[in-house]
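Lab manual, section 2.4: Encoding a predicted structure.

Procedure: take the sequence of the chain (473 residues), apply the prediction step described in section 2.3, and record the output as structure tokens. A sample record is shown.
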Amino acid sequence: MLQIYNTLSRSKEVFKPIESGKVKIYVCGMTVYDFCHIGHARVMIVFDMVVRWLRASGYEVLYVRNITDIDDKIINRAIENKESIAALTSRFIDAMRADSDSLGLMHPDQEPRATEFIGQMQGMISRLIEQQLAYQADDGDVNFAVRLFPGYGKLSGKSLDELQAGERVTIVGTKRDPHDFVLWKSAKPEEPADTRWQSPWGEGRPGWHIECSAMSCDLLGEHFDIHGGGSDLQFPHHENEIAQSEGALYGKGRAPSDEPFVHYWMHNGHIRVNEEKMSKSLGNFFLIRDVLKTYDPEVLRFFMLRAHYRSPINYSDAQLDEAHAGLVRLYTALAHTPSSDIAIDIESTWVQRFNAAVNDDFNTPEAIAVLFDLASEINRANGKEKDQLANTLRSLAGSLNFLQREPNQFLQAGARHTESGLSVEQIELQITARANAKQAKDFAKADGIRKQLLEQGVVLEDKPGGITEWRRL
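Recorded output:
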């Protein structure tokens, strides 16, 4: 049975969907004011894997990932660029989707934009005011009163007293408490007209936290199965989501244990670069589109899933080269075993081990280890057994979105895309020249051609029957 580590309970729990056979999942998406970086790629790849596995396990999945298209960063960038909010966000939504397609990922079933749900956000804010959990301050902002919600801190394990202990906390604006967070921002005179909406509390725009509560409740219902996102969102964003969502539902009382806002909270680990957390402020972030100029998308996906989704991972070219080498090993095992219609044996040790690994909180490193063991077995097998094992490898890897291409297509692409690499035609001409040299018994020339190709990143492998295969390093 599938077990998921639930951040809320800080333990692995057997997954039990609210509605039998169906799963509703919401993932916090991108704020669209710039191109996506590899931190965004990790969120996209991890939850693409989760959804694929749930569907492979027989669940009907409704996958929602939001788009934040109104935010202080968006407003500042639009003003800086002298363009409208709509023009800026549309451009980067297109770029985000292009990056996702380049990575070979599924599209979410629904991808709501925050600006399409202003009415739902205002409705939730009104309910919070009625429940006396929110108030309009003197500066016009509507804030959530965190101390009036008794369950605040249950996701992060942080209490307000611990957060404040030892700190000199300054109350920002006219908040009653420094930890109160904004639900509705009052418009400022200098802000553009396309950043404000009419509301019962005057012109303004929604705060960041309220958008996810409103969109997820509208599209998935007030109780749904899984909420995902990066570990940096656990506090305060997801903590605030719980407070405002359950506050709107239950007021100042706690949610019933069988009807919380979300049943399972999942958070993927962050990416580190040279052992430092990746961030724009440090200047150590990498855009997806720039990485894919050099590396195959499958290599980046494999790199991400070789680590457990909850673990931080260190990004470097050396790590991507290692991921490529791993894929070479797997594709090489499939190189002489064409796809067939042979049904895989679901009772086999390979299938059982693989399923057990992924069902253990999506333990993809252990599942990938099974794939490597299976590849080794393929290399030792012959005939029908070899074909059966190869088909099993393709099928299991396919559930994680790997090994679905013709092996030579991957092997002859190489680890890195370069402008100066030999063309296929040039390589094959050299192979022909080497074969002619061998036939003429000029072995020194044949060895020289092999060495020259190797220096240019091309490995030759002689097979029975006078066949020479090649791949790029």
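Check your result against the sample. The first helix runs from residue 38 to 56.
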